[in-house]
What we know:
The protein is mainly α.
Amino acid sequence: MNNKKLIDFLLKFLKGMLIGTGAILPGVSGGALAAVFGLYERLIDFIANITKDFKNNFLYFLPVGLGGVAGIFLLSIALSYLFEHAETQILWFFVGCIVGILPSLFKQAQKKGKKNTDYIIMVFSAALLLVILRKLDNTGINALPLNFYTWIFAGAIFALGLIIPGLSPSNFLVYLGIYKPMTDGIKNLDFSIIIPMGIGAVIILLLLSKLINFIFIKAYSQMFHFIIGVVIASTIMIIPFNSSYTLAIGIVCVITCMAGIILGLFMNKLEEEYKPD
């Protein structure tokens, strides 16, 4: 493996780790991270046409998948600790990462042309998602029973978080009272939880990916500006406005946010420099 291929592998692995971590953290969307990392469109096309160029697509997403597994089973432990002890600072780091990658998302959205109405779609989708998420924040839902069908439902919600950028599945699972049992089950490799979640995720991915892929074919720019809108809305939702800030915490938050922006810009630059032929 030459340096170019190694760096490409490591870059995809890192993106996969962040996507996997984002998938299990409330307020963060794995689908949105896949979009801002430039993986969303090809991933949906791969799932929607699983037999088309399967070998090349499988090899392309292999490091992403490995990174996703690492993010879920390894980084989640560290980030859970950090969220418990420094939640505000970590949230600002995630905000910075997304801000740093947004320019490349706009560039990707416009690669097949754009219309002025696309910005209306972006603003509308951002406003609509903000209203929905704010409404959910004020809604109390009783805990679901912990059984096979509940975990199938949980897996389906997770898949929706990948297919619909900006949707944070963990938020819904927190509202339903099954988030902590789920994360405990994943960390403890409880297959009575993992297997039905996998079944639910596969069902939703296969059912909806073709629809999303069809929309991309028919309305590429409009779909991507819709994605940008929900990415912006979901980013606003994780900004810790209500945290208690001291001067020291504020300084650290500025540093972590700037570090996130730098990381996002660096990953964009690295991706452009070492983009496979």
